[in-house]
Specification:
The protein has about 500 residues and is of the alpha/beta class. The chain has 2 domains: about 1-255 and about 470-495, Glycogen Phosphorylase B (Rossmann fold); about 275-470, Rossmann fold. The chain is built from 19 helices and 20 strands. Strand 16, helix 12 and strand 17 form a beta-alpha-beta unit. Helix 1 packs across helix 19 (about 470-495), helix 4 crosses helix 7 and helix 11 (about 315-325) packs parallel to helix 12. The longest helix is centred in the C-terminal third of the chain and has 25 residues, at about 470-495. It starts with a strand and ends with a helix. The structure holds adenosine-5'-diphosphate (ADP). Adenosine-5'-diphosphate (ADP) binds near residues 335, 337 and 389.
Length: about 500
């Protein structure tokens, strides 16, 4: 197969979130499985500063954007450690800026125009190079127009054969713009209706992709279910329900080259499943020292790393920490940046409870690794979570995750109960109702297991560390989905 990724982010070139990790790693795994893979993304300013070799090419073409014709140049690179060709669409007026989607907390005002241009340029590129693409893998709202252009205007033999898969990384970001931006797309107004491109009077690019793509997936099976109803459907639940026969979920993989406690260069003592007790004990001691916590090997230490945002469940966690602030039988290690109100609440907690609560307001990859290794429990009570990575790292590091049963958290953590403990499948602790009481109760269960049943605790840690959430597993599922989607597309092309 020839799979082409169209994306607004990919590591190592440009990143604001998990989308960039998926688009930086999955193409490499697909190529390793013996397929031809290319990737197309905008040539942002950041792209030139990532230490990768990027060359200019003679390829250039004009792209219609509304009533204008805008020139696109093409640069070429290669995804590190792979055979994947990366085509960068260069148009400095749109992409030679400090940010990717905006600056200083505000989106760029011409975002619709920028991604109309990019979406059309992807298809022009395929014709110009030319590339024999079987499936175009599009991601989130920024590439939502591509499936529509292919269905509405993709008449050439080269374009007509292309199947499309739309991956939703977070349904909350939809790319909605005022209705007059329909003119920028060049698509006939007849498509501006509630069943296709319109959403409450606005143009909605994510919805457009969901309607026109041959298949849709999200980054976990549970999230694929949840978004078919309110509130997680974010208004698009009806569209998603109508397309449920082609909607599925595939968990993102972990890059174990970076996240393996046995090879982790940030740890005082790397460890594996066979020597985790000594390894974790030393890492815990070092973490307690680093965060000014009272040195005590037996006191359970609860870690948290992540964006300090409502989505991440801090509305539940901070009140529990406040209520438990006086408790001597538990310690906290918190790392994150985000909403100023949450940053202040956490800082205050640390100041008022030295030795018991350690808080670092920063983005620190090394400390994130050390919290994963040195903690006993990892807190991830997210209100919703399309996939989530930290709980997967925690499993590998033998740090039992405490999670709200939602999205990827529900799909990857087996909560402890009588049955799962007896069968030896438990890997963490989970709660269903999104309330402070449910979180507090679940933490109490975890703490009592830690204190009173060390043999069960050890069993859970061992099972957790042996889980395999690698990219190879996810890539195999994507390959099956690509095959199925291409076959379905070919069947519809033949019958029309
Ligand atoms: P999301 O993509 O919603 O932010 P994920 O759990 O999928 O949540 O991924 C977040 C990633 O960002 C993880 O790799 C996590 O370790 C990292 N991260 C988030 N905040 C910080 C921070 N303050 N310091 C270091 N790493 C962080």
């Amino acid at each position: 197969m020839h799979i082409c990724f169209a994306t607004s982010e990919a590591v190592p070139y440009a990143k604001t979130g998990g989308l960039a990790d998926v688009c930086g790693v999955l193409p490499r795994e697909i190529a390793r499985a013996g397929h031809t893979v290319s990737l197309v993304m905008p040539a942002y300013r950041s792209v030139a500063h990532r230490g990768q070799s990027i060359e200019s090419t003679p390829i250039e073409f004009e792209v219609p954007v509304g009533s204008k014709s805008v020139k696109a140049e093409v640069l070429l690179g290669q995804l590190p450690e792979s055979e994947v060709s990366v085509y960068f669409i260069r148009q400095d007026d749109y992409f030679d800026r400090d940010g990717i989607y905006g600056e200083g907390g505000a989106d760029y005002e011409d975002n619709c125009e920028r991604f109309v241009f990019f979406s059309r340029a992807v298809l022009k590129l395929i014709e110009q190079v030319p590339l024999d693409v079987d499936l175009l893998h599009t991601h989130d709202w920024t590439t939502g127009l591509i499936p529509a252009y292919l269905k509405i205007e993709g008449d050439s033999e080269r374009l007509a054969r292309i199947a499309t898969l739309m991956t939703v990384h977070n349904l909350a970001y939809q790319g909605t713009f005022w209705h007059w931006d329909m003119l920028l797309t060049g698509i006939d107004w007849k498509y501006f209706n509630w069943q296709q491109m319109e959403f409450h009077g606005d143009l909605n690019l994510l919805k457009t992709g969901l309607v026109f793509a041959d298949a849709i997936n999200t980054v976990s099976p549970r999230y694929a279910e949840e978004i078919q109803s309110p509130p997680l459907g974010c208004g698009l639940e009806t569209v998603l329900r109508a397309r449920r026969s082609v909607l599925s979920g595939i968990i993102n993989g972990v890059d174990y080259r970076t996240w393996d406690p046995a090879e982790d260069r940030y740890l005082v003592r790397p460890y594996g499943v066979d020597n985790y007790r000594e390894g974790k004990a030393e890492c815990k001691r070092a973490l307690q020292r680093e965060l000014g916590l009272k040195p005590d090997p037996d006191r359970p230490l609860i870690g948290f790393v992540g964006r300090l945002a409502g989505q991440k469940g801090l509305e539940l966690a901070v009140p529990v920490m406040q209520a438990w602030a006086e408790r001597e039988d538990v310690q906290w290690a918190i790392l994150g940046t985000g909403e100023k109100r949450l940053e202040k609440q956490l800082r205050d907690l640390a100041t008022e409870n030295p030795g018991r609560i350690g808080v670092v307001i920063d983005f620190s990859e090394p400390l994130a690794h050390r919290i994963e290794a040195g903690s006993d429990l990892f807190l991830m009570p997210s209100e919703y979570e399309p996939c989530g990575l930290n709980q997967l790292y925690s499993l590998k590091y033998g740090t039992l995750p405490v999670v709200h049963e939602t999205g990827g958290l529900a799909d990857t953590v087996t909560g402890a109960n009588e049955e799962t403990l007896a069968s030896g499948s438990a890997t963490g602790f989970s709660f269903q109702s999104y309330t402070q009481a449910a979180l507090a109760q679940t933490l109490e269960v975890a703490l009592s297991l830690y204190r009173d049943h060390p043999e069960l605790w050890q069993q859970m840690v061992t099972v957790a560390m042996q889980q395999d959430w690698s990219w190879q597993q996810s890539a195999a599922r994507y390959l099956a989905l690509y095959r199925q989607t291409i076959a379905r597309h070919q069947a519809t092309v033949l019958t029309t």
